[in-house]
Request: fold
Amino acid sequence: MLDAGDTRANPRRHAQVQSYRDLAVWQRAMNVAVDCYRATPRFPKHETYGLTAQLHRAAVSVAANIAEGRSRQHTREFLYHLSVAYGSLAELETHIEIALRLAYLPSEEAHRLLSDCAQIGRMINGLLTSLHRREPQ
Reply:
């Protein structure tokens, strides 16, 4: 019987990461960014340059910083960009919460987005921990 740790059960688990596109955290961040863009057309027009733009910017920043950091030459640079991505994630969660409180987002949709953000946060933390272990003191 195969277990989840067996690469035959999950061939990507130990697959070599060739690009930021191979990172599950980047893939999830991209999905959340797209979901945020799809959610905001219902926002009031007066929020176009306010909350809508801020939410878009924060959502894009999470995935973009993961990609940029993974594409850098040194682990320290990746760590830095993951930290920036984590900060953008907190900003995104705040914007989603504000949209929920203003009733711009339905509760179910907002909670799903917040749950996705929490998962991305755990993944970023795991990646940070793993990279810190490899980094020479």
About this structure: The two ends are 40 Å apart (CA to CA). Helices lie at 24-39, 51-71, 75-101, 107-134. Residues 1-12 have pLDDT under 50 and may be disordered. Residues 98 and 120 are 20 Å apart (CA to CA).
